[in-house]
Amino acid sequence: MAAVAKRKTKEYSDSELISLFLEDQNSAYFTLLYRRYAGKVFAKCISMLADEGLARDATQDVFIKIMLNLGKFTEQSSFSTWVYSITYNYCIDIIRKKKKNILIFSEDMGKFKPEQEQEIPDSVILEMETNRLDKVMDEMPPGDKAILNMKYIDDMQIKEIAAVLDKTESAIKMQIMRAKARAQSIYDDMYGTEPINS
User: Fold this and answer.
1) pLDDT digits (tens, 9 = 90+) for 147-188
2) What digits encode the pLDDT tens for the residues 51-85?
3) CB atoms within 10 A of CB 70
4) Which fold does the domain 9-98 belong to in CATH?
5) Within the chain, which residue ranges are assigned CATH 1.10.10.10?
6) Which CATH architecture has domain 106-191?
7) So what's the pLDDT on residue 116?
8) 94-137 pLDDT per residue, tens
9) Plot region of 158 (φ>0 → left; ψ -120 to 50 → alpha; else → beta)
10) Residues spanned by CATH 1.10.1740.10 within the chain?
11) How far is residue 179's CA from residue 107's CA, in Å, rounded to a whole number?
């Protein structure tokens, strides 16, 4: 313990900070975790909620939830994945309360099914111009938008996304495929069927 105390704060691992906080209940340890993750949590909140004030409030609420539930963190996934999971679920709850009966994923729409459930290439997303992609994403159901952000912006592995959403890896692959198809459909509606990388 003395050896750990002599190290610089940035050298503490997440696990060490969690253990020290749970042991001593010293808020300084939790503050270090907060500083490490607050920017990332805020970025996730603003990307899902699209409102700076709401995102700031949500960030504070997410960290209260994290602090109150820290003893339940089992390290089956990384701490960052666990934080992302709490953030994602909290934001989805806000979106549902704000807009009753909102469709979270394109699969909820019933009528929307990608033709023959074919594999959609990643280029559908990666080759869209940034300003067009932003407009397309704004039209996506929040769950689809979040899952595409996890895959293509946050560069998360299927396994990590499955842990965040508490679903099987095969279910996540199917949701990503449907979200990409939805993005292509919205793009075609907005910009016609010209090649994305024309």
Assistant:
1) 888 888 888 899 989 988 888 999 999 989 988 888 888 888
2) 899 999 999 999 999 999 999 888 888 899 999 99
3) 18
4) Rna Polymerase Sigma Factor; Chain: A (1.10.1740)
5) 106-191
6) Orthogonal Bundle (1.10)
7) 47
8) 888 876 655 556 555 454 455 545 566 666 566 677 778 788 88
9) alpha
10) 9-98
11) 9
Q: In terms of Cα–Cα distance, which of 140, 139, 136, 131 is closest to 178? A: 140
Place of tokens 């293509």: 152
Q: What is the residue-wise DSSP string for the chain?
A: -HHHHHS-GGGS-HHHHHHHHHHH--HHHHHHHHHHHHHHHHHHHHHHH--HHHHHHHHHHHHHHHHHHGGG--SSS-HHHHHHHHHHHHHHHHHHHHSTT---SGGGGSS---GGGPPPPTHHHHTS-HHHHHHHHHTS-HHHHHHHIIIIIS---HHHHHHHHT--HHHHHHHHHHHHHHHHHHHHHHHTTS-TT-
